[in-house]
Amino acid sequence: MPQAIGETVFDVLYLSFAIIAGLIMLIKGNQPLVKKFGLMSVLLGTGDSFHLVPRSYALWTTGLEANAAALGIGKLITSITMTVFYLILFYIWRERYKVRECNGLTKAMWLLTILRIALCALPQNQWPMCGSSSWVGSFTKSRSFLFQTYKSKPQLIYKIQRSRHKC
User: Fold this and answer.
1) Is residue 58's pLDDT more than 90?
2) Separation CA 103–CA 42 (nearest Å)
3) 131 torsion bin: left (phi>0), alpha (psi -120 to 50), beta (else)
4) Which of 6, 16, 10, 75 is nearest to 47 (CA)?
5) Cα radius of gyration (the chain)
6) Rounded average pLDDT over 140-144
7) What are 37-42's contacts with CB under 8 Å, separation 24+?
8) Helices 68-96/32-60 angle, 10° precision
9) Which helix (H) or strand (E) segment is 151 a member of?
10) Cβ(49)–Cβ(14) below 8 Å
11) What digits encode the pLDDT tens for the residues 107-141?
């Protein structure tokens, strides 16, 4: 019960702040960068809600294992929204530093985004879509650690490309 209380309070505060702050930036922001940050914040909050709301529900009711399908689908949706989050961050970087002639880098970022989303959708992730009770945490013996590493490569390459690229 203490875990349910603590996590639920944190989740409600975090999700509320992320979504409300993002909406304020989107609605009241006068500059395109502020609006993009607002979009990122709303995307972060709504994306995370897909796994945090089912997690809170599970903690208050029948437990994590009994709600594995909802948790798995939530993790899938969160993985995809975080990938889009980083693509928006790339465009913020381009705008903030007035990067204009980086078409190759932009194409690479889109390719990495599509690759990451495709990797997230593959069955090797073992998102428990059918109520599999074997999945509870981030990694279990049944989930392929090697595949999880492959799935993270596009984001790693994206971060390295962005930090090293000079146009």
Assistant:
1) yes
2) 27
3) left
4) 75
5) 18
6) 51
7) 37/92, 39/88, 40/85, 40/88, 40/89, 40/92, 42/18
8) 170
9) helix 145-164
10) no
11) 989 999 999 999 888 888 777 654 444 444 444 44
Q: Which of 46-55, 112-121, 144-153 has the lowest mean pLDDT?
A: 144-153
Distance separating alpha carbons of residues 151 and 156, to the nearest angstrom: 10
Contact 22, 39 (CB under 8 A): yes
Distances (CA, A) of 56 to 6, 12, 60, 80, 132: 10, 10, 6, 21, 19
Q: 67 — phi, psi (to 5°)?
A: -115, 30
Per the CB < 8 A criterion, the answer to whether 42 and 26 are in contact is yes
pTM to 2 decimal places: 0.80
Count how many Cα atoms sit within 13 Å of the Cα of residue 130 in the half-sphere of its side chain. Answer: 2
**Confidence (pLDDT) at 133:** 42
**Inter-residue contact 75 to 51 (CB < 8 Å):** yes
pLDDT at 143: 53
Contact between residue 126 and residue 135 where contact means Cβ atoms under 8 Å apart: yes
Tokens of 14: 């975090």
